[in-house]
Amino acid sequence: MRLIPGLTLVLLGLLAMLAAIHFKGLRYFDRPALARNARFDPILDGVKWLLLLTGLGLLLRASPAAFFGTAVALLLLWSYRKAIRSARFQERLLRRDFAVLRRNRPGMSDGEILYDLAYRKHPRWGPELIEQMVRDYPTLESFARMLSRMERGYRGFKGRRPSRRPTAPSVTPGEE
Question: Same structural domain for residues 45 and 93?
Answer without folding.
Answer: no
